[in-house]
Design brief:
Alpha-Beta Plaits, alpha/beta, five-stranded antiparallel β-sheet, Beta-Lactamase, eight-stranded mixed barrel, single chain, rod-shaped, 3 domains, binds magnesium ion, TIM Barrel
C-alpha cells in the first residue's frame, strides 16, 4: 500500500521535528549549565580553601612570631618551666596539634608535655629538615597540618626555634561545609532552572497541541470536507452538501469559490442534460429522453400490473408544408402542434401522460394508468386520440395563411401488444402507418394483423415491379361534365392495381410505394401512353367523342425529372392524339417549391399543346396569388372543399374565391368529389366550369365508359 502524506500528518511530523530540535537545544543548554556549575563549585572551593588557609597561616605566623619573641629569655636561661607555660598557653588553642621548641641542631627541647618525653631527640618527621635549615619564619603544609616555624634569636644570633602545627581538619571541614552549601545552592538553582525549562517545554507542547488543533479545525477539516465534496461531485452525485462558511479568510474564499464552482457544474450538467434530452424546437422531451423514460417505466411496471398506452402521432403530409412554405414555416407549425397536443392532454387529464417529439413531424405520448384505477385504457387512449385528431385538424395560422393539416395516430398497448420498449415503438409506428393507409387524419390500434400489412408493404414494392407488364395494372375512367349544360367533356384516367393474391389495392397505397421506390418513372409513361391510346379508341369507335379529353395524373417525380415534356410529345406522336385533348394533372406540391424551375418545366410542357391542371387545389398552401406565377390551364378544387361546400360557409367562400380568381386569369375550374345534387347545383350557381364525382359517375373500366358514350 502506498503511504499517503496527508497535510495533517505532515504538520504533526514538522511539529515533532521542531520539538526534537528544541529538546536537543535545551539538552545542550542543561549540559552546559551543569558543567558551568561544576566549574563554579571548583573555583569557589579553591578560593574558600585559599581564604581559610591564609587565615590559619597568618594567625599561625603571628602566634609563632610572638611565641618566638616570648621564648628568647626562657630559652637563653634554659628555664624549661617557663617555656612549658608559654607553650601550653598556645596549645590551648583548639586547632593547635603540637608545639615544639628545638635547638639549632634540630633536637627537641620541649614538646609542651609535662615529662618532655621526646627531650633531646632529633625531629624525625618529614617536615623537620626544612624547619631546621630555615633561617627565617617558614611555613609548610601537608594535607593534615600547617606547620609554622620561627627562629628564636638574641641579637642576630639564632639560639633555636619554635614550630607550631595547626591541624587542618577543621579548616577542611569548614571548607567542605561551605562547598557542600555552595553545591546544594547550585543544585537548587539547577533544579529550578530545569523546572523552568520543563515548564517552558510543557507550554511549548501545549502551544503545539493548540496550533495543531487550530490547523486541524481551520485548515485540514475544511479542506478534507471540500475534497470529499469534490469526490462526490466527480462521482456524479450533484446533490452533495458543499460546506457553507461565514469565514472571511482564504479558506472561506476557497470554500465559497468551490461552492460556486459546484453550483456552476450542477447548472452545466443540467444544461447539458437538458440539451441532450430535449427537443430544441418545441422544448419537449426528445427521442432519447423518451426511450429512457419508457424503459424506466417498463421496469417499474413489470412487477406491478399496470397498463400503458403509447400513441404515435404523425402529421399528415407535413412534407408539403416544408416544401411549399419553407422550413421556418414548418418549424412554426411544429411548435403550434406541440402546444396544441399539450393542451389536449391537459384537458383530457387522466392517468399520467408523457409527451415527446421524435424528430420530424412525429409526436409520441405515453399514457399510464395505475392498476385498479378502473380505467379502460383502450377507451381512454381512443378518446384522447379522437380529441387530438379533432384539435389538430383545426386550421393553423402560419405567416398569415391558413394551413389545413391532419394527423394520423397509431396506438399500441402494454402489456397486451408487447412487453419491451423496442417492440412497443415498432408497433406504434406500424399502427400509425396503418392510420395513414386508412385515409389519414384518424387513429388506429395496433393489431397483430398489421404486422402482415407492413410486411405486405415491403413485398408490395417487389410485386409492383413488372405489374404493368403482367397486366395487373389498368386504367379506369371517371367522367367529367360541364356544369353549364351537363355535357360530358372528358374523363380522368385513374390507375388500378389488381394484386394476384390480395385483390384490388388502393391507389393511395401503391402510388405512394411507386413514388418512393422510383417505379413511378416507368409506370407513369406507360399510363400516359395507355390513356392516349384509349382516348384515340373513343374517337375511333364512338361518334361525337372527338373532343373528349383525357386527364392523366402525373407524379411530381416525373415532372422534376425534366423529361416529362418529351414523354408527352412522344406519347402524342406515337398515338396520334391531338395535344389539346390531353390534360396533365399535377399536384400543387409538384409545382411549388422551386417556382422558377417549375414554371420553365410547365412552360415547356404547355408548348407541346397539352393543358396543365393543378390537382387537389386548396390543400397545398400556395394560396390564390400563386396562380398568377405558375402557368396552368386549370385547377381542380380538392374534394375536401367540395364535400363541405353545403355545410361550411368558409369552404363555400373559398371555393367561390377560387372560381372568381381563376376566371379572372382565364383559368378553367374543375370541382372533384361531387357526391350530391346540392353540391352540383351550388357549384354551377357559382360559375364552376367542370365537375366530376360519384354523383355524376364512378370511375369505370374502358367498356363501361364506352357504353356511357353511347
Ligand atoms: P386524384 O387525382 O385527386 O383523383 C381523384 C380521386 O377521387 C380518385 O381516387 C377518385 O376515385 C376519387 N373520387 C372521385 N369522385 C369522388 C367522389 O365523389 N367522392 C370521393 N370520396 N372520391 C371521389 P383514387 O382513384 O383512389 O385515386 C387517388 C389518387 O391517386 C388520385 O387522386 C391521384 O392523385 C393518384 N392517382 C391515381 N391514378 C394515378 C396515376 O395514374 N398516376 C399518378 N401519378 N397518380 C395517380
Ligand atoms: Mg387527379
Ligand atoms: Mg384530386
Amino acid at each position: 500500500m502506498k503511504l499517503r502524506h496527508g497535510l495533517y500528518p505532515r504538520f504533526l511530523l514538522l511539529a515533532a521535528g521542531v520539538l526534537v530540535v528544541v529538546l536537543a537545544v535545551v539538552g545542550v543548554m542543561l549540559h552546559r549549565q551543569a558543567t558551568m556549575q561544576r566549574e563554579v563549585v571548583a573555583l569557589s572551593q579553591e578560593s574558600i580553601h585559599a581564604l581559610l588557609f591564609d587565615r590559619v597561616r597568618e594567625r599561625g605566623q603571628a602566634v609563632a612570631r610572638q611565641l618566638a619573641d616570648s621564648l628568647v629569655n626562657p630559652l637563653y636561661y634554659f628555664d624549661l618551666d617557663a617555656i612549658g607555660v608559654l607553650m601550653r598557653n598556645v596549645m590551648q588553642q583548639s586547632d593547635v596539634s603540637y608545639v615544639i621548641v628545638y635547638d639549632n641542631s634540630g633536637a627537641v627541647i620541649h614538646d609542651g608535655s609535662d615529662d618532655i618525653a621526646t627531650y633531646g631527640q632529633a625531629m624525625q618527621d618529614p617536615l623537620a629538615y626544612e624547619v631546621v635549615t630555615a633561617r627565617d619564619m617558614h611555613v609548610q603544609v601537608t594535607n593534615k597540618v600547617l606547620d609554622v616555624s620561627a627562629p628564636i634569636r638574641i641579637g642576630g644570633q639564632r639560639i633555636g626555634g619554635v614550630r607550631i602545627g595547626y591541624s587542618l581538619d577543621s579548616v577542611i571541614a569548614d571548607e567542605n561545609r561551605a562547598t557542600a552549601a555552595m553545591r546544594g545552592r547550585m543544585e537548587d538553582i539547577g533544579y529550578q532552572h530545569a523546572l523552568w525549562v520543563l515548564l517552558m517545554m510543557l507550554v511549548l507542547v501545549a502551544i503545539g497541541v493548540v496550533v495543531s488543533l487550530v490547523v486541524q479545525r481551520s485548515l485540514v477539516r475544511p479542506i478534507r470536507q471540500l475534497a470529499n465534496a469534490a469526490r462526490e461531485i466527480e462521482a456524479g452525485n450533484f446533490a452533495t452538501e458543499v460546506p457553507v462558511t461565514p469565514r472571511d479568510d482564504e479558506v472561506g474564499d476557497l470554500t465559497r469559490a468551490f461552492s460556486r464552482m459546484g453550483d456552476s457544474i450542477v447548472r452545466h450538467d443540467r444544461d447539458i442534460r437538458r440539451m441532450a434530452y430535449t427537443d430544441a424546437l418545441t422544448g419537449l422531451s426528445n427521442r432519447l429522453a423518451f426511450r429512457e423514460h419508457l424503459d424506466q417505466q417498463l421496469m417499474l411496471v413489470r412487477g406491478a400490473a399496470r397498463q400503458m398506452a403509447l400513441l404515435f402521432a404523425d402529421i399528415d403530409d407535413f412534407k408539403r408544408v416544408n416544401d411549399t412554405l419553407g422550413h421556418d414555416a414548418g418549424d412554426e407549425v411544429l411548435v403550434q402542434f406541440s402546444s396544441r397536443i399539450r393542451e389536449v392532454i391537459e384537458r383530457h387529464d387522466d392517468g399520467h401522460a408523457t409527451l415527446a417529439r421524435f424528430g420530424g413531424d412525429e409526436f409520441v405520448i405515453l399514457l399510464e394508468f395505475a392498476e385498479g384505477s378502473g380505467a379502460d385504457i383502450r377507451a381512454r387512449a381512443s378518446s384522447l386520440a379522437d380529441a387530438l385528431v379533432a384539435e389538430l385538424g383545426r386550421p393553423i395560422m402560419v405567416r398569415g395563411r391558413q394551413v389545413f393539416l391532419g394527423t394520423s395516430i397509431g396506438i399500441t398497448l402494454f402489456p397486451d401488444d408487447a412487453s419491451n420498449a423496442a417492440m412497443l415503438m415498432k408497433n406504434g409506428d406500424i399502427a400509425m402507418y396503418q392510420a395513414k393507409v386508412a385515409g389519414k387524419n384518424c387513429h388506429r390500434f395496433y393489431s397483430r394483423a398489421m404486422d402482415q400489412a407492413v410486411e405486405r408493404r415491403v413485398h408490395m414494392e417487389q410485386d409492383l415491379r413488372g405489374a404493368w407488364e403482367r397486366g395487373e395494372l389498368s386504367l379506369v375512367y371517371q367522367p367529367v361534365y360541364r356544369l353549364s349544360d351537363n355535357a360530358l367533356t372528358g374523363a380522368e384516367a385513374l390507375l388500378r392495381w389488381q394484386h394476384p393474391e390480395h385483390g384490388p389495392i388502393a391507389p393511395s397505397v401503391f402510388i405512394d410505394v411507386a413514388e418512393q421506390s422510383g417505379l413511378i418513372e416507368t409506370i407513369g409513361p406507360a399510363v400516359l401512353r395507355a390513356a392516349c391510346v384509349d382516348a384515340m379508341r373513343w374517337t375511333r369507335e364512338r361518334e361525337g367523342a372527338e373532343d373528349l379529353f383525357v386527364a392523366v395524373n402525373v407524379s411530381p417525380r416525373q415532372l422534376r425529372n425534366g423529361d416529362l415534356s418529351e414523354q408527352v410529345a412522344q406519347a402524342l406522336a406515337d398515338t396520334g392524339l391531338s395535344p389539346s385533348r390531353l390534360h396533365i394533372e399535377l399536384t400543387e406540391t409538384a409545382v411549388i417549391g422551386d417556382e422558377i424551375r417549375a414554371s420553365t418545366l410547365l412552360g415547356r410542357l404547355r408548348s407541346t399543346g397539352v393543358k396543365v391542371w393543378l390537382d387537389d387545389f386548396g390543400t397545398g398552401f400556395s394560396g390564390l396569388s400563386h396562380l398568377r406565377r405558375v402557368p396552368v390551364d386549370g385547377v381542380k378544387i380538392d374534394r375536401s372543399f367540395v364535400a363541405d361546400v353545403l355545410r361550411d360557409p368558409d369552404d363555400l367562400a373559398l371555393t367561390t374565391a377560387i372560381i372568381a380568381m381563376a376566371h379572372s386569369l382565364g383559368i378553367t375550374v374543375v370541382a372533384e368529389g361531387v357526391e350530391k345534387e346540392g353540391q352540383y347545383d351550388i357549384l354551377r350557381e357559382r360559375g364552376c366550369d367542370l365537375a366530376q364525382g360519384y354523383w355524376l359517375g364512378y370511375p369505370m373500366v374502358m367498356q363501361d365508359f364506352m357504353a356511357l358514350l353511347d
